[in-house]
UniProtKB/TrEMBL annotation:
Domain of life: Eukaryota
Compositional bias annotation for Pro residues: 1-11
Ranges annotated as biased composition (Low complexity): 112-128
Alphabetical list of Gene3D superfamilies matching this protein: HAD superfamily/HAD-like
Name assigned to this protein: Uncharacterized protein
Location of region: Disordered: 1-32, 104-132
Length: 342
């Protein structure tokens, strides 16, 4: 069912009007906003990827040893695999795979052998990795994720129901694949030998959606690079953008016209992700950002980037329940208050 028609605008000509009606919150003290007509859902939010991510990181780092030095004597190398919490925390706080691997690299997480006092020890490997080292680790991560991580992925709880409800209600869905963070699996080498992996990113995303039986509920796939290169893919259309503002440029030039289909209208748009840093894209295009925070890591991670979500839900089930409530007209806004520590 289509969204209710918006009332005539009362915005003064000199005032900035948001691109999206959903980005104009209700009056203070209320918790309602109009339901979106377009949803940009980050792929990582539709997937339950904890097992895949933690397995891949351990396979990558487990066999790499660290050494400790005490009183000039080098001890036997010790292997210290990161815990689930350490791995998921690293992915929650950064969209950059090099930064994640720097946090988790051998030497960053270490413990002295059991016969020594647990005190900080000099770590020869505690240094900035070189670009070549980052590249080798990233390539290895992609290979391991493609071979061993992808089979461990599952659809996140509530994802199928949310996508089906959106399809029934006429909400257009575009899945966003981020280059970096826990979406690096989308950049496995192309089957056709492509050298940049971006076409492969879209292909892997579509393959996952097909594998879980939800591809027919999604209108398109948009691949966005953490390195500021963007690639939208819909019906074979491909365009790259370089430099800052790539997300907005791709939205304005490709995705928004495709969604509108030639119609002149304001769109109610929501960007949904479990990583707060992704929601900066919502501000770029005048949309509302929804943070799905119930993924088992520290709730405040990522807030340091200065990105404040407009909506906060614990999971996709909650988002679907609020978006498609009996009144069919409003999406509840859950405010993130300063004192919210849960």
């Amino acid at each position: 069912m289509a969204s209710p028609a918006s009332p005539p605008s009362t915005t003064p000509p000199s005032a900035k009007r948001p691109h999206s009606a959903i980005s104009a919150p209700a009056a203070p003290g209320t918790t309602k906003a109009t339901k979106p007509r377009v949803a940009l859902l980050y792929l990582n939010t539709l997937l339950a990827s904890h097992a895949a991510v933690t397995h891949t990181i351990r396979a990558l780092l487990l066999t790499t040893t660290t050494t400790t030095t005490t009183n000039g004597t080098t001890n036997e190398p010790t292997t210290t695999p990161p815990t689930d919490t350490q791995i998921l925390t690293a992915f929650a706080t950064s969209p950059s795979l090099p930064a994640i691997l720097t946090t988790l690299r051998p030497g960053s997480i270490s413990h002295p052998p059991s016969n020594q006092t647990a005190q900080p020890q000099p770590q020869p490997q505690d240094r900035q990795a070189t670009p070549d080292e980052h590249a080798r680790l990233a390539e290895a991560y992609v290979r391991i994720y493609a071979a061993q991580g992808l089979p461990l992925l599952e659809l996140a709880p509530g994802a199928r129901e949310l996508l089906a409800a959106m399809a029934r209600d006429g909400v257009r869905v575009v899945v966003v694949v981020a280059r970096g963070g826990d979406e690096e699996h989308a950049h496995a080498p192309d089957e056709d030998g492509g050298d940049d992996g971006q076409d492969g990113a879209a292909a892997v995303a579509v393959g996952l959606l097909e594998r879980f039986g939800v591809a027919g509920l999604v209108g398109g796939v948009m691949v966005v690079s953490a390195a500021a290169a963007a690639l939208p893919v819909d019906g074979g259309a491909v365009e790259k953008g370089e430099g800052g503002g790539a997300f907005k440029r791709v939205w304005d030039g490709m995705v928004e016209p495709w969604v509108k289909g030639g119609r002149v209208e304001e769109l109610e748009v929501v960007v949904v992700s479990r990583a707060v840093y992704d929601l900066g894209a919502a501000k770029e295009i005048g949309a509302r950002g929804c943070w799905v925070r119930g993924f088992g890591v520290e709730q405040r991670l990522g807030m340091g980037a200065g990105v404040e979500p407009d909506l906060v839900v614990e999971g996709l089930e909650e988002l679907g329940a609020k978006m498609f409530a009996a009144d069919h007209g409003e999406l509840e806004v859950v405010e993130l208050m300063d004192g919210d520590d849960d």
